[in-house]
Amino acid sequence: QFSAGGIVKLPKFEMVMSKSEANNKPVLAAADVHIVTVYGRIYCLQLDRVGMALNLYRFYRDAVVQQGTLPVYSSRIAVSAVDNIIMVHQIDAKVVILYDVFMDSYAPISAPLPLLVRGLASNSKQAAQPADQQSSAYGGTLYGEGWNFLIPDLICDAENGLLWKLHLDLEAIAASTSDAPSILEFLQRRKSDLSMVKTLSLAIVRTTILERRPITLVAKAMDIILDSYSRSMKTVGGAAGVRRTSEQNQQSSFQPVEDSRVVSQEPPGTMIGPVINTDSASGVESRQSQSNSGVEHGIANLAAHVDRSSLNTSSDSDGITNTSRAVSQATSSSQISDATGKRPQVVGEDSQPLASGTSMQHGTHVASVAISPIEMVQSVFVLVEDEMMGDPAYLIAVIMEFLRSLSKAGLKAPPDLYVMMTALLACSNRYAEIALFVSNKILEPSRELAMQLIELGRQHSLTRKLGVDMLRERCLHHDYVAALLQDGYYLEALRYARKYKVITVQPSLFLEEAVAKNSTPNLAAVLSFFAELTPSFKTTLDYSRYRHILLEMV
Amino acid sequence: RSARRLFQSPRSATGADCPAGGSSVVSVKMGLSSAAEIDGAQLCIFDLRRGQQEGQELDKILFFHPADCPILLQLSVIGLCEGIITFTRIFSPEDDCEVIESDKHCHVFYQAEPDIWMVLVVQKIKDNESTLRFGALQGILKESHSLFAMFHGPIRTLLDRQPSAEFARGHLHTFVTDYLSDFSVGKKLQLPTYRDSLTERGTVQMLTVSREVALEVQSLTTVLGSCLRNVICQSIVLFEDLLVSTTLPLDDTLNLYTYAILRLTPSALSSNGNSWSYLRKGGYVNADTTLSSANGAAAAERYNSRSRDTSPGGQNQMHHNFRPLQREKLSKGKDGFVAADFATTEIRGAVPLNPILWFHQAEERMYLCVYQHKNLTILLVIPASSLINGEEGIAHVKRHLLENASQNIVTVEQKLSRGWGGENAYHVGGYRYILSDPNRKVSRASPPGKVITLSKDSLLALNRLRGEIDLEKSRAKRSDPTHDKDYEVCIRAKNNAWIIAKISRGKELYMAIEKGGETLLYASTAVEKFSNR
């Protein structure tokens, strides 16, 4: 019976549903089954009231496979999905547990978090009087009797006639766990609020370094970030630029709409988040977007707005902020009727499994979540460098792990990083290691690095030599000749200049060296060398000057 | 006569050259009858600050090999050496006398520490004057001294602490005797000859690894370094007999590397005797952990001499029973540890690294902990000051190492073995070569198995060429110490082989090409190819 009802528009899943049904106990009530779509996969969550567990099934095209079991701490639960996160509302406890099932890990992302009603800021800003009153009145009734959990991330508050939307407050979530790698993993998979994700990720990496957490942990964090970057580079290719502009457009286009509409916002709170992107590939979504597109469009706009406002206030919330928002009453009611009307059978009382899909954001932003190595260097290493000067060894080890992650991901590090690393090594007097790293190419040769080595060579002549040799290997002929001259190897420099036709170095430099060495034959040789090499040399001032000097020396 | 003799003679004839350039070689024609009576080589160490009064000359002698040499003879050898040293100082106060060549003997000098001299006396067999290269012989003196200083601290410090020199003599006796045992064939010392002209003592041989593997290794050293919570441990990683990575400064690396090659690497350990290999098998049997395949390395006992002045009780322990170079000791002493923990392998001993080189502190004692996994040998150096309760602290470090680093160790070992080209990895077809960088103390050479195939003529010529270059280098160094001079020499040996030496920007390349038909052009192209490495 159940299957027939639930899958009105999903004929493909009919079979599937019945199978999962077969697995279930006979006492299964419709209210105990929830369907969510995350990462383009469809999951069915079935509440086992006796065992106090939530069984997770994944629907494949032709099979249903049990994936895992989530614990339940409340007799009444509701399930929502926001931004590919499964949220299990423990209604009795009034908290939400978040799961990110991407990697088939069924551990919660963080400890159970409360919902927070958000929207005060926007209220005042918008000056929406009715909303104000409502919001203040609303405070105590989170998870009230009248809440209907709808579709992916909406809550219909029948008593107050409000519709809430769930948001993820990433910052709060990030603050609630100390497990940096897993939180980074989580953040990097989020598709909403990209700039936030990025800033947060960078901040997390920075703090891990500043707190001198164990290197292995930092290494894991780097792996995650670079992994996601290289993945996004592969999938996205060169389209990043286009995407970014489209994002901007979206935002700007939202602005006016929000302002006009947000009037009735309330601070209700359910969780989390912004709109979900789903792959259009799955039938569910396409259905969804068809059915709800109008509504969702509106919601998306609002969501974007609330998000912003929630950020402003989030600092004072300790747990998760749930921003939900009531859309203006007119809208909300229409939505509700829309939704409920569509599938009365399935809806049961509190849960409404729906796949989500906002077509408008589809596929965007993948690139911009990812943090490029250059960004890492600029916003992590450069920033922490000063503070870490007391303990360069740790920072060196961190950079080393970063390099390792880079090479694992097949990425190149910017030369600045090598320069920084060399400086760090030198200031802890680890010149031997510089030589080792240069020779096994951990420090990849570049002109910048060579110059840095030469600079450091003032304290340590072997290091200078490394730099000079690097110039030669990189075929930076001009710099190499100049460096040789600086060291007083003017004859060698001359030989080299002849061999590689380096004509950019001033003859006077060579001549000056020869004079400094007080060697008459050499000065004469250098003079005649240039006279032959460049016929016009004899007419220059240098020629006559050094000729004069030569004659005096003789 | 040899070329060396040729350009020596004008100098010694006039004697005027010495003050100007400083004499590194003095040709002495007088008969050294005293030394002539002894077969084989002698090695003595003496202190010029001791025994200044007549009748107390014996006090100068800190070590003499062979030990059963008559005292009078010992005195006469040392007397001669002292005389030469004093004499040459008149002309060349800056540079030490380095070698005396007489008809039957060759005296090689090395001033290990101010006024502490080591002299190696080698007997010349007929017609072999060019088979010895004094640079190579001096290398032995240098090596033995720096190893000694690594384990026992400088000789001078030992003497200052105990003017009777009993401990210094005791240590020198056991240590240098153990060291020389590597060279002894029967009762005689078999010192390096022309056959070793493609080796260079006092350099480290590196394993070339790809960048990816190198980063992996670095990540391992990071883990190793964090074995102590508050202090960073230094470490050296070797694969087979090649250095993979180090966090120590050059000279400390060299000393530890040398020691590891002599006694610690799998190949060195396998020559340590039967008891050893038996124990190693035991390690394999106990195969229930990831580390089960780890070979045990030996354990040496703690060494307490440095704490002597603070804790008088330490005096007894330091006496003669710390012999890091004694092979049997290494394997035997390990028993205890292996019984306690089959998987690990370690040596414990406080290693006071050469204080001059040890930049942290003038005299820092370090514990050495050796761990081995298949062909990977890890030397972990732990500052003794950071371990309040020595033994326990080491046990803690070991546990930490096993817990945290074992995964990395296994990974690194696998990657290195996969990339390892075997013994002949650095063989270059057609050439026999040695490429060394004395500044960085690194060298790479043709594998010994390939060098053997060279004919005697080539090796002799090569040996002589190296001797010449050594002289040339030291001369250039005296005239301008900051400036590297470039040389290139190609010689056609008697057997038509090309013998080539090239020094360019401080890097030295010696090679032999036994292709008689080839032209000089061919030879120099071959050199070009090498110089790009």
Automatic annotation (TrEMBL), chain A:
GO biological process terms held by the UniProt record: regulation of autophagy
UniProt region (Disordered), positions on chain: 240-294, 308-360
GO cellular component, one term: Mon1-Ccz1 complex
Biased composition (Polar residues): 277-294, 309-338
Domain called Mic1: residue spans: 353-534
Protein name, UniProt field: Mic1 domain-containing protein
UniProtKB/TrEMBL annotation, chain B:
UniProt feature, compositional bias: Polar residues: 310-319
Highest taxon in the source lineage: Eukaryota
Location of region: Disordered: 298-323
A GO CC annotation given for this chain: Mon1-Ccz1 complex
Domain CCZ1/INTU/HSP4 first Longin residue range list: 44-153
GO biological process terms on file: vesicle-mediated transport
One Pfam family cited in the UniProt record for this chain: Intu_longin_1
Record family assignment: Belongs to the CCZ1 family.
Name of the protein described by the UniProt record: CCZ1/INTU/HSP4 first Longin domain-containing protein
